[in-house]
């Protein structure tokens, strides 16, 4: 086993690109059918988030033997794993629910000149999309606070393991 103190570069890039997509989706999210280009950017960032989630699965498998092993207490390990799984759940379900909400709300939506496939679903999904999106942001904030805690208080290199440098 070849353990490293840093994540492999593809996983680091995927991590920060995911954050970028989440932030873009958050700051462009209002009502995509009425928001023109901003709405298209919101939908695109959500669709890209699904692709990044799908890409994450084989990367986790490919690099499973070289991922950094951080020295965490049992409770820290449980908390970190729980937040990670909830983030993954939000990363998958938020854009799916958003897409289903979009297609429930409009008969067609053009994304950069291309019509997106339409699914007829119940509009109540919009509330679920919002709930997951807000949960996603809260969990990402908790994740960031934990990384900063590790960096400034514990000084254990956890944050540096995901840095681009």
TrEMBL record:
Domain of life: Bacteria
TM segment ranges: 12-29, 41-62, 74-97, 109-125, 132-153
Family indicated by similarity: Belongs to the cytochrome b561 family.
UniProt protein name: Cytochrome b
Compartment(s): Cell membrane
Sequence ranges assigned to domain Cytochrome b561 bacterial/Ni-hydrogenase in this UniProt record: 7-162
Cofactor: heme b
Topology class, membrane: Multi-pass membrane protein
Main location: membrane
Pfam families from the UniProt entry: Ni_hydr_CYTB
Originating species: Pasteurella oralis
PANTHER family, sorted: CYTOCHROME B561, CYTOCHROME B561 HOMOLOG 1
Keyword terms: Cell membrane, Electron transport, Heme, Iron, Membrane, Metal-binding, Transmembrane, Transmembrane helix, Transport
């Amino acid at each position: 086993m070849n353990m490293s103190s840093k994540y492999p570069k593809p996983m680091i890039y995927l991590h920060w690109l995911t954050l970028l997509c989440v932030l873009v989706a958050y700051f462009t999210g209002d009502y995509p059918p009425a928001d023109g280009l901003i709405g298209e950017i919101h939908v695109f960032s959500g669709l890209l988030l699904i692709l990044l989630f799908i890409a994450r699965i084989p990367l986790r498998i490919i690099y499973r033997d070289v991922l950094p092993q951080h020295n965490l207490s049992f409770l820290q390990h449980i908390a970190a794993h729980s937040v990670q799984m909830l983030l993954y759940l939000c990363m998958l379900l938020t854009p799916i629910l958003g897409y289903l909400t979009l297609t429930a709300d409009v008969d067609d939506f053009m994304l950069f000149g291309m019509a997106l496939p339409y699914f007829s679903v119940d509009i109540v999904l919009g509330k679920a999309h919002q709930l997951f999106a807000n949960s996603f942001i809260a969990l990402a904030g908790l994740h960031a606070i934990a990384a900063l805690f590790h960096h400034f208080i514990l000084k254990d290199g956890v944050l540096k393991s995901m840095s681009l440098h």
